[in-house]
Amino acid sequence: MDLGKWRALFHAGNPSRQTTFGKELRERLQSELHRQILINTETEQLPHADNRVVLSRDQVDLMGLPRPEIHFQLGGYEHKGMKTARLLHEYIFEKMGATHISHSGPHTGCHIMGVYRMGANPKDSVVDKNLRTHDHKNLFLLGSGVFPTGGTANPTLTIAALALRTASYVSAKLKEE
Residue 124 sits in which domain range? Predict the structure, then answer.
């Protein structure tokens, strides 16, 4: 759970839902901006068989290649987590004596993960622990697609660590030849 004011521009909620302008807006900002708080909760996204990326049968790009289609739905675990978080937020705000509470809907960090999973078994994964594909020994896939779930932390450092491990593996293999 994050506690802070990192969305300070979202005075008393989402600006697209506000109808305050001019002097009234200025007065409201002066009154409320320094007295607001944001509570943000993130939940892990579990793998679901229906969540996938496939090649489109209907749409092609400028080169005539099939465009990707992303199929993604949140499951019961995620919805339950968001509901629990909202109830917790309301409890905290009630204990604080908050008088104006606004909730936003679920948002995503937009890290596409799990498209080509890492694992030991070619039947349920695409790459091994060194990110080499099971089917093509000279093809390595680096990126967040290897993660089977989407946790709440930014995946960048883990992606970098996996890339460095893969580079070391490839370098060692080249020295063997």
Answer: 109-177
